[in-house]
Amino acid sequence: RSSSPYIVMEALLDRVRASMRGLVPATEYDKVYNDECVLSFDSPFSPGGLYVSLRTYLGFGAQHVQAASMRSGETLYVHLQKRRTLRPKSDAPDAAPTKMALGVEGGFSVDGPQYDESTEAALVLMPSGERVPLPCQELPEFVSTCCQAIVTHVGAMQQRKESAVAWEAETLPSKYAEELVQLPPHKKISPDPAAWVCEESGMRENLWLNLSDGHIGSGRRQWDGSGGTNGALNHYEETKKHFPPHGFPLVVKLGTITPHGADVYSYADDENSEVTDPKLAEHLAHWGIDVMRMEKTAQSVTEMNIAANESLELDKITEAGKDLAPLTSRGYLGLNNLGNSCYVNSVLQLLFTLPEYQTLHPAAPAIFATAPSDPTGDLPSQLAKLGGALLGDRYNPGGDGAPPPPPVPEGGEEGPAPEAAVAPRMLISLVGKGHSEFSSSRQQDAAEYLAHLV
Q1: pLDDT > 70 in the chain, percent
Q2: DSSP secondary structure letter of residue 345
C-alpha cells in the first residue's frame, strides 16, 4: 500500500531536521557560489540548474553534485533553476559616452540585451535527490532562513563580474611636471588658433606644444596614414640628444586648453602616456598663454578615442561582405572578455592548443576526485574545469550545459544568437590572487601573464 503524501513529507522533513545541525545562514561577508559551478561552467540557467550546499556555499552542476555530496558528506542543497525572457527593445537611444570607460556613468555601456528573470528554488536532500519546493511552511524556520540566504545572496562570480567590467582610463600626474625644465621664453604663443603651425611640416591641426622649449609639432602618424607627421615626437627625440637622459617630454595639445585643463602627454620612456600636469597653468603662462582666456577649439584625445571606438570598422580586419558562419563545434568555444581580460583569454586559448594542457580534459574526473574541499582555490581543478569547457561541446549552443535561448515576448524581436563562450572568472581570480596587477581590472601584458601563470 502506498504512503500518503503527508507521511512522505513528514519522513522527508525528519531527514532534513537530522541534517540541519551546524548550518549557519550565509551573510554578506560570505562567498556564496550560487551563480556558477565550482567544477564546471554550469549555472542556474543551465538545463540542470545549480545545486548550492547549505553548509559550504559551494555550487555544483547536475553532473557534479552527486560526487560532491559523496565526497563531503553534505546532504542539504538548494537547487536553483533560472529562466530568462527577453524584454521588448526600448526605442530610447543609448546615452553617448563622454569618457573612455566601461560600465561607469559617462562611459561605454557593457549591458547586453535586457531580460526578465524567474527563479525556481527547492531544497534537495542528497544522495536520494528528494525535493522540497521553496518556500515551504513545513520546513523548520531556521532551515528556511538558510535557504533564503542562498537564494538571495549576490553570487561570488557576480561580485567578480561587477568589479571587472567597471573600468575607466586612468590619467596620472607626470613625474616630470613638478620640476619641469623650461628654457627662457624666447617667444610667445598666440592664443589665436590661426597662428598655430607645425614647425616641421606646416600642418595646422593636431598640434602639440612642448612645455619646455615652446616648440610646436604635429601629432603622431596613425597606422592608416591619418593624424600628424610625428613632428612633436621627432622633436622630443632630438631633445633627448641635447638634454639627456629624458629630454623635454611634456607636450600639451593646442586647442584643448581651457580654464579646466588640457590634454597633456609625456613622451618619456617610463611614462609614454597621457598624463596630468598639476602646474599646467604656470607652465603655459611661461609661454604667454593665459588659460583663463582660452577656449576649446579641437577634439580632445578622449573625444577622438570615443569616436574611434564608436565608428570602429571591423570589416577592415575581417572578411567584409562575406556571409560567415560562426564555428560552434567542439574545440571552438570562446572566452568572454571580463572588462580588460583579453590578455588572459589570449594566453589561455594558446595554452589549450598544447598537448600537455589538452590532457587536462580527460584527466578532469581524477583531478576533481582528489581536489581539496574548496576547489575554487585549486589551480589544477580550475584548469581542468576550463579544459573541459574549451575542449568539449557542453557549452556550445544546444549543449547539455548551455542555457537555452530565452523565449521572445509576443510581438518582440528575437534576441542575439546564443554565444558559444564561457567566462573563466574563478581561474582569473585564483591566478591573480596576491598580484597587484593581475588581480586588477586594468590592461596588462600577455607575455607577462604567461610567465606568471606557468
Answers
A1: 81
A2: H
